[in-house]
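Tokens for chain A. Residues wanted.
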């Protein structure tokens, strides 16, 4: 992490909460890409023998991806204590390659790019390309389809 970079709390863009929140901060975001970071703590529910399991790494990557689209649903009047404007899930994993599992206390820096997006009435379907790194070394890459739907109050 570069000193002086503004870190945006992820809860401003996603409805996830502990223990399923797998991103700490958004480092950079636009309509077409995002960079997020996550430090693996000892209380992570996907930690086994001090390694983040594949399902946890994929969930982290998906949450990173969904923040690109999720930002369109959240605005300045968002209250994380009572507000869940969108639900989302992985609709398909088109490809995934996990080269190694990150260890407890390591920081994952993940970059996602929007490949395609279709918006309907209150929902979005998108394809994302994502790469996860630890200390500058690639540990995983994937192409993921996500479905996000706006929740009406």
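Reply:
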């Amino acid at each position: 992490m570069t000193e002086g970079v503004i870190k945006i709390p992820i809860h401003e863009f996603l409805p996830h909460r502990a223990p399923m929140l797998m991103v700490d901060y958004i480092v950079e975001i636009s309509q077409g890409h995002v960079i997020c970071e996550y430090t693996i703590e000892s209380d992570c529910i996907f930690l086994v023998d001090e390694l983040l399991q594949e399902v946890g790494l994929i969930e982290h990557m998906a949450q990173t991806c969904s923040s690109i689209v999720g930002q369109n649903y959240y605005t300045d009047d968002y209250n994380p204590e009572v507000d869940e404007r969108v639900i989302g899930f992985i609709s398909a994993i088109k490809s995934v390659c996990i080269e190694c599992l990150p260890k407890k206390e390591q920081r994952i820096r993940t970059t996602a790019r929007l490949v395609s997006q279709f918006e309907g009435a209150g929902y979005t379907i998108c394809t994302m390309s994502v790469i996860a790194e630890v200390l500058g070394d690639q540990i995983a890459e994937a192409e993921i389809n996500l479905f996000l739907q706006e929740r009406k109050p």
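The chain has one domain: 8-150. Strands lie at 8-9, 25-29, 33-39, 47-48, 51-52, 86-98, 107-120, 123-134, 137-150.
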